[in-house]
Every structure is written in structure tokens, then in C-alpha cells.
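Input record, target 12 of the design panel.
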């Protein structure tokens, strides 16, 4: 089901959901690859909403960059530390999904 963001309140609720999913991934309570589509689709909708209303000034530093940092410093550690298993493959898949999101929106970087 596509994520629709129509207000700043919707965006806030969506970001809370993403934060919850990130916590579940970090705690090993959810399969990383299964969380990936919801994380990425939700954040794409949030960023698209803010681009649509012209509020792009700090989108990169507020949303795009922190997600990529989480990807590097948390998600990647789940597959770099050990042998290839279904769990490490799942983390690698999430890493790739988030990397694709990052490359799509890195154009918002102003520095």
C-alpha cells in the first residue's frame, strides 16, 4: 500500500514509524529485509512531500544523511561481522535498499 503524506503531521507520524522499525531492526526483532520496503517507501513519501511544498533546506541533513549513517554504522555491521547466512543476507538487502534511497536523494545535499 503506497504511503501518502499530506501534512507535516502525517510526516511526523511516518518518521515515528520509521524510527520504530529501525529500533526493531537494531534489536533483532524484525527481519531487516522485510522492514526495508516500509522504511524506504515511507521516507520517500516524506521527502517527496517536503520537496513538493518547497521545504528542502535541511532535508538532506535532517533525513537522508542520518538514515545513511544508520545504514553504515548499524545495518552493515549485521553482515560484515560474520559468514554469509540468511540473517546476514537480509541485512545486506536492507543495506542496498537504503543505499538506493540515499543515492536518489543525495541531490538535496547543499554542501
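The sequence produced for target 12 reads:
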Amino acid at each position: 500500500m503506497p504511503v501518502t503524506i499530506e501534512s507535516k503531521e502525517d510526516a511526523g507520524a511516518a518518521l515515528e514509524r520509521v524510527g520504530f522499525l529501525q529500533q526493531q531492526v537494531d534489536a533483532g526483532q524484525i527481519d531487516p529485509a522485510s522492514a526495508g520496503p516500509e522504511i524506504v517507501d515511507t521516507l520517500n513519501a516524506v521527502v517527496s512531500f517536503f520537496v513538493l511544498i518547497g521545504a528542502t533546506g535541511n532535508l538532506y541533513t535532517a533525513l537522508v544523511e542520518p538514515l545513511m549513517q544508520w545504514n553504515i554504522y548499524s545495518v552493515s555491521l549485521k553482515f560484515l561481522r560474520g559468514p554469509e547466512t540468511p540473517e546476514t543476507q537480509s541485512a545486506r538487502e536492507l543495506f542496498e535498499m537504503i543505499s538506493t534511497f540515499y543515492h536518489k536523494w543525495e541531490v538535496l545535499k547543499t554542501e
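The CA atoms of residues 40 and 98 lie 7 Å apart.
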